[in-house]
Amino acid sequence: MYNFLLIEDSIEDSNSFQDTIKRLNTAADEELYHLEVAETYAAGMEKVSEKINGIIVDIKLDGDHSGNDLIREIVEKFRVPVAIFTGTPDTEQDSSSPIQIYKKGESSHEEILHELCTVLDTGLFNVLGGTGIIENVMTKIFWKNLYPQISLWKEKRAQGIETEKVLLRYAVSHIQELIDNEVPAYVTEEMYIKPPISQDIKTGSIFQSTKDGLYCIVLSPPCDLAKHGGNFKTDRILVCEIDNHDTVNTAITDKATKRKDKKADIQNAIKNNSTDYYHWLPQNTLFVGGYINFRKVITYPPEAFIKEYGLPKVKVQEYFVKNILNRFSAYYARQGQPDFDFKSEANTIIDKIMPIEAT
Q1: With CB atoms 3.0 to 4.6 Å apart as the test, which of 53, 235, 236, 281 could cross-link to 299 if both were Cys?
Q2: pLDDT category, 338, cuts 50, 70, 90?
Q3: Is 18 exposed, middle or buried (0-12, 13-18, 19+ CB in 10 A)?
Q4: CA distance linking residue 338 with residue 336, whole number of Å
Q5: What is the pLDDT of residue 181?
Q6: In this structure, how many other beta carbons lie within 10 angstroms of the beta carbon of residue 174?
Q7: Could you write out the three-class secondary structure of 114-182?
């Protein structure tokens, strides 16, 4: 059962919504939906809790209160899907906000409920909701791994170490360890973090040139990008260009004539088995994708880089960054040992160890 909260000061509108809920439950022959109603701003905030699966808010509430104020409070304190259902014709929402606006008289109650249920069915709020998987995992880690070590962290704190941030990182590593064997194969969107958590230049950050529109990825070692006194430890930012996804794919498949052979060539390419110098970045809803070209290496002074590239567009997730750096390093170390006359050199060494007369 989905448990929704309607915050609406119009009794007529709230009764109409309740009638829709009753009709849908009757048609389904079970109680699919439950709707609680709050008629005021204060009552709405009192009813918001971790038990609520979704919230429907009117913008114009009692007195001088605004639904926008209430939404701001919800966003700061809770993790729950929200929909705006309003009769205010000029209601606008930040284009980056996931909160949908539905106009009274134009949108049906069923449409709003369907959208909220669709969002809930993704599992996002099962993972990150107030009583979701992350909360349960953190409780387990807290009692089993972290709290039993409290004497260690007290000692570190006494040494002046900023233990809160260290513990945050340590807790995240425990979560990763716990779920690694419990999840299916990666989906390509997991490779990217968008928008980037940090607007700083980071290893694995992807930028787009304001001059020619080309993308590049920062491959400077993380230690070089650490700042001291506001300045990087390095005086050059190292990047590799990202070649166009479709252009490279076409070039890879040009030599093959049969579909199965083309498919095999593409599979090799995206597994990074086609060449030493290309590294596949998947194309999906978060990024246009492409192939990092390790042969196209450029370095910039930090000021020049910031001027041309501005802020990062997307960040490659750390797990994948390590793989990229490993392949990048391997590409430039691939020459191997220079050739010598190893047979002659071996004879010389053996002669020193065991002179001919001794044998």
Answers
A1: 236
A2: low
A3: middle
A4: 6
A5: 63
A6: 17
A7: HHHHHHHHCCHHHHHCCCCHHHHHHHHHHHHHHHHHHHHHHHHHHCCCCHHHHHHHHHHHHHHHHHCCC
Helices 259-270 and 245-253, axial angle in degrees (round to 10): 130
Cβ proximity of 87 and 94 under 8 Å: no
Task: From 34, 84, 22, 37, select the one nearest 56 (Cα to Cα).
Answer: 84
∠61-65-66 over CA atoms, to 5°? 70
Q: What's the mean pLDDT when you consider all of the chain?
A: 86
DSSP letter (8 states) at residue 36: E
pLDDT > 70? residue 319:
yes
Bond from prior residue into 312 cis (ω within 30 degrees of 0): no
Q: What is the mean pLDDT of residues 275-294?
A: 95
- Of all residues in the chain, the percent with pLDDT exceeding 90 is 47
The span from the CA of 254 to the CA of 252, in Å, is 6
How remote is the C-alpha of 97 from its chain's centroid? 16
Strand partners, 293: 278
Architecture of domain 192-332: Roll (2.30)
The pair of three-digit structure tokens given for residue 24, joined into one six-digit string: 């849908």
Would you state the pLDDT for residue 206? 98
Strand partners, 5: 36, 55
Q: Where are the domains of the chain?
A: 2-124, 133-183, 192-332
> Each residue of 223-256: pLDDT tens digit?
999 888 888 889 999 999 999 999 999 999 998 8
Architecture of the CATH domain 2-124: 3-Layer(aba) Sandwich (3.40)
State the CB neighbour count (10 A cutoff) for residue 240: 22
Bridge partners of residue 60, in order along the sequence: 66
